[in-house]
Amino acid sequence: MTQGNTYARGMAHLLLAMLMSNGNTLRLKEILREQDFQNSKPAHVSVALAKLRTKGLLGRSASGWRITAKGKEKVRAFSLLSYFPSPFKGKDPANTVIAFDIPENSRKSRDWLRNQIKIFGYKMLQQSLWVGPRPLPANFMKRLGDLHIRKNIKTFTIRKNAD
Fold first, then answer.
1. Model confidence pLDDT, tens digit, residues 75-93
2. How many CB atoms lie within 10 A of CB 37?
3. pLDDT at 60 > cutoff 50
4. Distances in Å between the alpha carbon of 30 and those of 85, 91, 97, 123, 125?
5. 155 CB burial (10 A radius; 0-12, 13-18, 19+)
6. What is the radius of gyration, based on Cα positions, of the chain?
C-alpha cells in the first residue's frame, strides 16, 4: 500500500477498518487489503493476473485460473517467512543462548530469524548471538529445518552452578 493509496482510501475507510479490527494490527491490515482489492479496477486485476501468468505462477484453463507448481512453491516460500506468536511470558528466565552464522545468500531467512527471536523476547548480545527463554517451540525448530538453516544455528542452555 502506497502513501497515496492511503489518502485515496479516505479517512472514513481507515476509521472503519480500525474499529472493525478491535486493535488487532494483523486484522487491520487484512481489512485494508480486502478494501483495496474491492476498490481495484478490473483492468488492474487483469494486468496483475497476466503478469503472474507470464512469470509462470498462474495458468489459465477452460475452468478458470489455477496456481502452477512454481506458484505453489512461491506461496510456500512466503509462508515459511511468516512469524509465530511468542509462547513465553514476560518474566520467563533468559536461560538459552542462540548463536548463528547464516550465509549472505540466505539473507531473508537470517532476517526472519532475527525478527522471530525478537518476538520470542530474546535480547541481542551481538548480531548473531542472542539470549532468551527456553525451550524453543517445536514448530519453530521445524521451520528452521524447512528454511534449510537449522545446521547454521547452535543453542546453549545456561545453568547455574550448584556450589
1. 877 788 888 888 888 788 8
2. 10
3. yes
4. 17, 31, 35, 30, 35
5. middle
6. 21
Residue-wise burial string across 94-123, b where 16 or more C-beta atoms lie within 10 A, e elsewhere? eebbbebebeeeeeebbebbbebbeebbbe
Is-cis flag, bond preceding 137, omega within 30? no
User: How many Å apart are CA 93 and CA 86, to the nearest integer?
Assistant: 14
| Placement of cell 494483523 in the chain | 26
Burial of 59 (0-12, 13-18, 19+ CB in 10 A): middle
How far is 157 from 131, CA to CA, in rounded Å? 10
Residue 132 to residues 101, 112, 125, Cα–Cα distance (Å)? 18, 17, 10
Instruction: Answer yes or no: pTM beyond 0.85.
Output: no
User: Which of these, 64, 154, 147, 70, lies nearest to 110 by C-alpha position?
Assistant: 147
Residue of higher predicted confidence among 82 and 9: 82
Q: Which of 139, 31, 153, 1 is nearest to 80 (CA)?
A: 139
Output helix, strand, coil percentages for the chain, rounded to the nearest 5.
50, 15, 30
Name the residue with cell 482510501.
9
Can you state the angle between helices 25-38 and 11-21, rounded to 10 degrees?
140
